[in-house]
């Protein structure tokens, strides 16, 4: 019988196993070939995913798994796993240490459609920092074992805010959505102190939960990151607003309203 505690142990074991593969590859500089051939999967990416899948499948062989590299592994168990073996591929390949392994566990609860499943657990492991984030439904977010809240940090007003922007993989490939995204970005830069482009959203969801980043604007984000992000946001007390293809979060009401308004007027 699965409990959140046993699911969490497995998720942490899987993320740290995958993360150690990434750390070894990063330290060995094992990224060059992949940068030259965009349609070839990075060996670190697939190596990390193999580690994650081995841990999850050995303990929950009947759970459905949606893995970024190998796709869907069907199962009829009560939970579904979303596996991102390397969130931050661009950073990894550029030699920037902001990348993570991440899993989200969703309760299927009879949901016919996977998108109706409810996220109950999210784990993010940042191997180069040995940072671990765990978010549980109705259980808060922990950073290296300690409970954190988004209002732990000071300030959070637009004029002093650092805001991260998150987009899904398709946004830059479609001229119309690319233009919307650029317009949102310019507006964030006009109103806030700093804008950070996220090439590793799960790392930033952890920082938002700790209150070291002040706000987030997601435009047409990818499911694998967004389900985890919204769980972390809810469980850490981030103020939130959403529409059909956008989500904004902030540590203060004034920043939330500013981000909401600039997003709504452009989508
Ligand atoms: O700027 P690009 O090349 O479109 O990459 C942005 C993509 O990178 C990410 O930040 C991380 O993606 P990966 O998990 O594939 O590393 C995505 O969320 C985002 O869509
Ligand atoms: Mg990702």
UniProtKB/TrEMBL annotation:
InterPro entries: Inositol_monophosphatase-like (IPR000760). Transmembrane segments: none annotated. GO terms for molecular function: fructose 1,6-bisphosphate 1-phosphatase activity; inositol monophosphate 1-phosphatase activity; metal ion binding. It catalyses: beta-D-fructose 1,6-bisphosphate + H2O = beta-D-fructose 6-phosphate + phosphate. Its cofactor is Mg(2+). Pfam families: Inositol_P. Mg(2+) binds at residues 68, 84, 86-87. Its EC number is 3.1.3.11. GO terms for biological process: inositol metabolic process; signal transduction. Belongs to the inositol monophosphatase superfamily. FBPase class 4 family. This is fructose-bisphosphatase. It comes from Salinadaptatus halalkaliphilus.
């Amino acid at each position: 019988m699965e409990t959140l505690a046993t699911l969490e142990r497995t998720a942490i074991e899987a993320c740290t196993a995958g993360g150690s593969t990434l750390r070894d590859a990063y330290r060995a500089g094992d990224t060059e070939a992949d940068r030259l051939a965009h349609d070839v999967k990075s060996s670190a990416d697939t190596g990390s995913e193999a580690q994650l899948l081995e841990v999850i499948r050995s303990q929950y062989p009947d759970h459905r798994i949606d893995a970024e590299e190998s796709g869907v592994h069907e199962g009829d168990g009560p939970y579904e796993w979303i596996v991102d073996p390397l969130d931050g591929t661009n950073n990894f390949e550029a030699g920037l240490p902001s990348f993570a392994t991440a899993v989200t566990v969703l309760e299927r609860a009879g949901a016919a459609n996977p998108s109706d499943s409810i996220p109950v657990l999210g784990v993010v492991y940042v191997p180069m920092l040995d940072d671990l984030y765990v978010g549980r439904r109705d259980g808060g977010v922990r950073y290296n074992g300690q409970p954190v809240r988004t209002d732990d940090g000071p300030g959070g007003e637009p004029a002093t805010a650092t805001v991260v922007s998150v987009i899904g993989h398709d946004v830059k490939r479609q001229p119309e959505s690319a233009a919307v995204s650029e317009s949102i970005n310019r507006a964030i830069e006009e109103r806030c102190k700093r804008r950070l482009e996220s090439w590793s959203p799960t790392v930033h969801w952890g920082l938002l939960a700790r209150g070291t980043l002040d706000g987030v604007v997601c435009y047409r984000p990818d499911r694998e990151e967004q389900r985890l992000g919204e769980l972390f946001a809810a469980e850490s007390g981030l103020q939130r607003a959403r529409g059909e293809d956008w989500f904004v979060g902030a540590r203060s009401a004034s920043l939330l309203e500013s981000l909401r308004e600039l997003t709504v007027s452009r989508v």
